[in-house]
Fold these 4 entries.
Entry 1:
Amino acid sequence: MNASGHGPGRAGGDDTARASRELRETRAELARLLPAPPERELSPDRHLHHKERLMRLIDDDRAARSAGGTAAGAGKAPAARRPLLARPALWLPATALALAGALTFTLVTGDATGTRADTTASSATGSKGSTGSATVLLDRIATVAARTDAAPVRADQFTYVKSLTAGAAGQEDGSFVPGALHEREMWLSQRPGPVEQTGLIHEDGGYAPLRELLPSGSPGMYPGIDRPTYSWLASLPTDPAALLKKLYELTPPLEGQEADQAVFDRIGQLLRETVMPAGNTAAFYRAAARIPGVTRLEDVKDPAGRHGVAVARVDKRASTATQWIFDRKTLAFLGDRSYLTKDVTEGRKGTVMSETAVLRRAVVDGYRERPSGS
């Protein structure tokens, strides 16, 4: 602002005040549109997933408005405007973008109804190996995966994953408290067209639909990186280099996250929550081996207490690490874990932020249907 209180300085101040006011209005609008959160927060991966989608919708809306403003007045900078968000579809459990959390959480949220005796990764992380040994291990896992006989999943079927999972819950002071392990069942629709309900989750004795944040007028969610159906996964390249290039294009990192970590975590999510052709599974493991910084860990326990071998990657920018744990003999995927690697605002070094052990994976013909023997 200049001495007289006029001119460019004053305009800049007005724009800043306007942007601040409009951000508050956006938050108020979101608070009005979203239902009250239930006792259980979103699972860590679902919270992060929806946070990403919310921010993409905001960014897309701002980009569209900016482009429109430029076209309407050449050479005239468009005024900062509040993004107009369509009424969001509900997702499960009727959620927890409880506003400030959705816009400001830097990590994950989850259940905080109890804690385990071991709330840090120190007793489960194993001893560190080398990048070379990780590459060899992932190649062995890929070779085994390629020989796995998996029947194709029809478009009218559902993938089913039963797991033991837990996530840390965010506190008002910015720290996170490890949550209690609990069983979760998840069914994901394989319909090729757009759907409003992408799946169903069962935990804590109740069922809740999985739905997505959608822009106004959208017919639903199409298959893609955020809704990875069997058919969509089967359409991806099986050449590791081509697949990895595609994943970097489809997986923008979160603020403060390394791009390599974003892709590593996305591959882990796909391996944990989906069913895909054997050739694609092998390609994902070989693609992961090409990501810089992936190392091997020995004698790691998954959340269910099963001992195995693991590969891991540390995100030095975010001070977090992610492990994928495998059965030492069969090399089957057992689960994954994310934890802090330094003492930071979010918690102490070793604090487990999220972890999952896959207990059962199958294909069924309907929601709430379970494979035999479950």
Entry 2:
Amino acid sequence: MTAAPPPKTLYTRAAALVRRIGVPSAVLYAALLFDVVYTTQAALDDNGPRFVDFGLLPGFFAIVACAVWAQKRAAVAGVAGGGVLVFSTLFIHAFHIPPYSSVLPKVPITEVVAGVLMVYYVTRRARAGVAFCVDSFLVVAGLVAVFGRYAGVSEIDSGTGSQALLFGLLLLAGAVAPAITARDRSPRGRPRTRKLRRVNELAMGQWPLMGLLGFALLFEFGYTYASNARGFPILFCSLVAAFISVLSPRRPADAVLGIAGIMLVSTVVTPFLHLRYDYPMPGGVPFVQIVAAMGVVVNLTRARGLSSSWPRVAVLSSVVALAAILNSNGPRGLQTDPQNLSLLAFAAALLLGISIAVGLMLRSRDSERTTVVQSAVADAQTAERMALARELHDVVAHHVTGIVVQAQAARMMAEQKPEVAVEAMARIENAGVEALAAMRRLVRSMRGDAPAGSSEFSEQATTDLGADLRKLVEGANHGVPTSMHLDLPPDLPHEVGRSALRLVQESLTNVGKHASGATEAFVVAEVAGGELHLRVTDNGRETAHRPAGGSGGYGLVGMRERVALLKGRLSAGRGPDGGWRVEAWLPLAAGEGDE
């Protein structure tokens, strides 16, 4: 039974959308959406002239278009993106539009993400000399955007300028380094995609966490600018924590200890940096480290369950408690108020409970998905075994039965009519060659060189059922003269025709094996009332001795399976005249969906 498809939840739909457009494009569009909402809010508030902030939107959409274009024409799009940054800066400076700061001062997050993506695509796909020139132009355009959007030189202090250069250098290195490792170095021009595939799989599984970390880092960059570089050590710890959290699915247990160590360093360093008011830390822990810790707990609980995770979670909780005591703005530097500590403990327990619940939910979903996959694999293996069994019985047994019948006839007629024996030996040879070819095709299917259960059909059955039936009867391997009545349309569904051929073949094989004294067989194949009607009859009588070659007892079983797959009907038994009668009705509509 085929497993039911998973329900289309909001998460699965979002994951499918991210998979379709790609993680880089999803991040870019998310940044654009954030900037559009933020700019709209700023344009409609009472701070400064109304609607003037809408002047930033054309630059946002233009730089996003260049970043998307860079996925196909990296160098040209990079030059266009640099030009957009320069002209946007001139426009902002001329009309006194106040841009907000993100990772870089006076550069909104959309322009930062678009610039990083363009540098990455240019470095990865353009030729070395072209990539160097275009990246240099993008760097210059970025510097123009950073320093050209201030009203005057006096507004730029040394701390802001040095931080902008430092963060810009980090962004440039973060875009260029992976792009260089992904560049094509093979002589045939084939890109090395194995590492990129691993990174992409990791990103596809972690994109909600990466999005939350990205927004949290956006605010922490702003806090770092406000603290005049005193918050840079905390920002560095947050970046390391975010990196560990994203990679935590590979080694979740070690990742929890790594996050705990980073948080401990940040907790110990914070009192010496005097960041009480310039660097907000809820509960004494920066935003990014909180999100990173929750992500690591989710991944650990998802991988190992709660019973194996609690010792490391306890270590992480102890570090969080120490941070709350040291850095949550107590009256004398330390937080000792029982009421405040209880509130912080409740908030930490709530976040921890949410993380554990999400991890257990994902673990349950993974277990259910594994069960569904195993069930589907077992069903596929069973279906393949059944298809191979039907092929072995219907095709190979048909030829072997013909060989046995012809050999018996040759032995009986050898002394009276030697020429009949010679003809029988020729038919035995032909049947043996056909049986050997059928066995080879079946072995090829079992080895995976062709789809099991379909190779024999595709190589022996054609799209003309009438021609296949005539060839089958003319072969006369079953040893009983056979006549036919065919009334078949030319557009018979292929799946129905193939199954009909096997049903007639197995019926004639049974005639040769079981119809004692049969002198004729009759095959009818006609279409009536939207169904293919098959009838195979003989005038023999029930055999009193063991049939030639024995009987495996699977002939009717295989025939019923084939008919059931097409939602048809099968009837088999003694006819009114004493012979055997097999009838099948196959709906023509059953084969249309299999083409």
Entry 3:
Amino acid sequence: MIYAVKDILLQITAACSFLCMFQWWIDQGYIVRRNERFLDDQSFLIISCALSIVFCMVLSTTLFDAIYLNLAMIPAYIGILYAGFRSGVSLAVFFILCTVLFSEPPGLSNLVLNTGVLLYPLLFGMAKPFKSEKVMGKIFILWSVLFPSMMFIVLAPKMYGPSLYDTSSKEMAVALFYLLVPVILGGGLLYFIETAWDRLQTQEKMKGISEKFERESEKLQQITNVVPVSIMLLDDMGYVTELNDCMLNLFRQHEPNITREAIVGQQVERLLLQEVNGEALKRMRESGFSKQRYNEKVQYDSRTYNVFSAPLHHGVGGGSAGRVLTVQDLTEEEKFRSELDNVERLTLVGQMAAGITHEIRNPMAVVRGFLQLMREKSPGEMDSYYQIVIEELDRANDIINDFLSLAQSRISDKEPVQLHHIIKELAPLLWADANLRGQSVELRLCPSLPLLQLNPREIKQLILNLARNGMEAMEPKGELLLETRFTENKVELIIQDTGSGIPQSQLEKLFVPFYTTKNQGTGLGLPLCLSIAERHQGSIRVESQEGKGTAFIVSFPYGQEGRQQAAATKERSDFPSQL
């Protein structure tokens, strides 16, 4: 009796071996599941069932010298139900061959009985609905095939051998145990297989969700890094938890060596305390404590930023998740707005100039004419008074002319002109003005300048304005330098004085209309010069040092034809020296 129970337990172990192999495969192989070099789970399950059949066949024996003790039918039936048609047929053929080799006693009737081949049509017919059933449905399908097969194996020897009434109670109990064990064991094995697959599917779903979450997080991080807005995340206590690349670059504009690690974990107030206005920090702190939005323009290290802060929440109606802080650099926008204000002021100047032209110049011309007539008929001692009035009228007329020139927005009529010719035409006038002031003028002209597309009248006005400004900035014995030079794509005119220089705080305001440092100035001379240069697609740059003087550098562009002409001019100028 003990040996019979032991043999049954060995068969149970052999029949369950495929489940151990299958579980090992799942635990080791799900990571490389998508690799084509590896078997899928279903194929490995069929192979494991085949190996389990071999184990059961090797350990097979007879119970009470009558009942064939072999539980290979359990892995065989489970493999056939889970396999496809071809794999199922192959496994069934393999099971039959193993039975032919190992079954005791041999013979066709025993082969049919021990393999349950008569139930194979039912088994293959139920394989397709088996795959779509839930766990209990699959167990019932297996039982509907397995129980009749085991009943034939247990009861058939008793039909041709001793009567059931002659069998002892212990033998009957063991036989009944052997009949029920495969049914219970088959259901348990199916349950564990389905549980393992469900766990595997859950792992794959979780892995897919995790990978999707990582992809979406990475995508969101890339989006925040690409967006040209500085973004920073803060916790409820105001400590930095995350920031994008734009925010890091913003910090590096003020502290070039700062790292992301040095910012994360710091309080935002400590990062901004040195430069931001205290009242702005106080309002930012209060908005954080009150969980309200905050939006304000802040001055930081001579730049203007728009700071926006808003609270974050966990889900809909959830708890606090900190705050998001965004910063936009408005410095260039403020400059653009300032320039736009200048444009609006110039527009107003144009409107004023148009009205002044018609309403004031004509009466002034009449007044000047009558003053000249009255001067001729008045005594000589009154000439100085008439001269003062006429000069003031002329000065007012010059102001009107500056208004008109500055308000002009039409395209200048240009022609090919040599810049040196314009300078040489103005040279006598500049020398005369310099002599009256006790100053000197030096011309340092490049011998190989190309022809430029210029409006001679406007260029003369530009040179006179800049030169006279330089003379007015110098004391007697000062020296004014007019120099020309050219590079690959531009010609430069430098007008440099030896005056007191311009403070750095005033350099940015030089070309603002109506801004002047002179007692009698109108603030329209330099804006007029800039307007003339821009109408020639040029620019004006100012270099100044206090106590040493100021240089106005006017640049005019020219193209490929101008470069060729400049090279030819240089060769002609060098030719006499080579002789």
Entry 4:
Amino acid sequence: MAGHIDHGKTTLTKALTNVDTDRLKEEKERQISIELGFAPLHEDEEIQISVVDVPGHERFIRQMIAGVAGIDLVILAVAADEGVMPQTREHLEILDFLGIRNGIVAITKIDRVDEEFTGLVKEEILEELKGTVFEDVPFILTDSLSGKGIEELKQLIILTLKERDTRDAKGAFRLPIDQVFTVKGQGTVVRGTVYEGKVEEGQLLKIMPNGIETRARQLQVHHQPAKAAFAGQRAAINLSGVSKEDIERGEVLVSSEHFSVTKTIDVAVRMVGDLEHIVKQRMPIKCHIGTAEVMGKIVFFDRNDLSNSEGEILCQLRLEEEVVAKRGDRFILRRPSPQETIGGGWVIDPNGEKYRFGQKTIENLSRKKEGTPKDRIKAALSDDKVLTVSEITAKTSLDELTVKEILKEEDFLSINSKEFTLVAIKEAVEEEIADRLNEFHLENPMKQGANKAELLQAMQNKYPKMLVEFVLNAAIEESAFQRKGQFLQNKGFYPHVPKSWQKRTDNLLADLKKDGYKVKPFDEYYASAGIPENLKGDLKRYLEDQEIVVPLDAQYYWHGDHFRKAVEELKKSTAAEFEVGNAKDVLGLSRKYMIPFLEKLDTLGMTRRAENKRIWI
């Protein structure tokens, strides 16, 4: 909901949603919006719609820009008794620079003027909209107090949004933060519009650009509890492990580190149509990108100043603070003093470098801006990791034949007959698996390896599960990793006792072996060896897996050599069928050891019990 101050945006929002978005005491007293306001409008099986009411006063332009970032549809409110005003024009320019193409003009307060005057206002608006992205948008006449046109506007909003393509929720999650607050008993909550990807309850996240790690403890979407939030949805996320003071509006909540954190950005800029002051080389600017507002300077490579709009200009922004950005992100530029919007554009490359002044740099930026078809495909796969041919064509605007030809090149990899990734991504996944396994081996040297299911689970927030499985299976075939049942190992790894406890383990085994068949409970040997209690589980499992010891039951263990010797003696000295008494005669053991030993043979499938007898298998 955009428009000039006092043109009825908040009242119109309330008429549509029955929610007063002016929450602050100061907003009530001054009767103007200062902060962003949010109100749920409509929800059914197909769609959820919320209204973002943005401040209209020029002093609150920062909040206005934060509010429209990531929006699908704009209602431009124009009061019938005032018509087009300065902020109306500025908001139109900002919407154009941000690439918002869907709009509806709501002429408000129509009960304050007669029908003829309303017609004149409409003509004035039509004239103002000529040549803008809103030139052909529909008009609705409304009065929020009497309710005229409100239901028609609501139905038009729903119809317009249902005709839009659903946002793509693939790829890494990104939410520019526009509100931070605390809820008693819950802790820190951030709110914003999900730009891309999805977030799930319990998911590990990072607050960029500072890299603070956190977790999504609870989610709300459109003011309702939810298990997940998707691209395009308005979400509030309760974060664990961070305080309100750790976070600021303008920071970004992400699920992946592939987003660039940068201060130097190559951009394509368009200036406003009627610049009041010349834009000079290296002039201070205020850059609004996502929900961030950062000071910096604009650097030209083919001029030293700009006095009027000359179409798209290739240049660079050098910022004083880091921001999170990626190719294609939109931004607005404002002059700090005197305050005015001077232009806007999109990010060509978030990782700009310092270039020489001259035409050669402009030519390089131009090539970078256009991007080869291969560059566009690589950029799409870098974002989403795995895509089908049809998904690539949709994201790159390339024809299917071109896409298929480029995918044959060595930079690309077919996962199956339908889906593709980059060789670089495959290598990155393999490297991360190796790093995770190496870390696991260092922490758990006596274990067979990491559980495959747990490894897949740990990586699925960053990569699709099927991609990790594909890379893992290929690496196992190439012997980069080893698989033992459900466990994974790095090549060349074998379970072992840490050097620091090897001598005491040897002493334990020597004592166990010395006692032959008539052993004490295993825990007594363990206690005598002086090995820390927290290692007991891993050590016992390791000794069992390596068949160095064999548990007869939960209490008694034999040295593996004695167990194998007992089996050999018993098999040599008994017939195909034998009874407990026969076994006792051979081994000279009491029932205390004999019964657990025979039951162990049954468990291992070496014998089968038939009433009072056992049969060798």
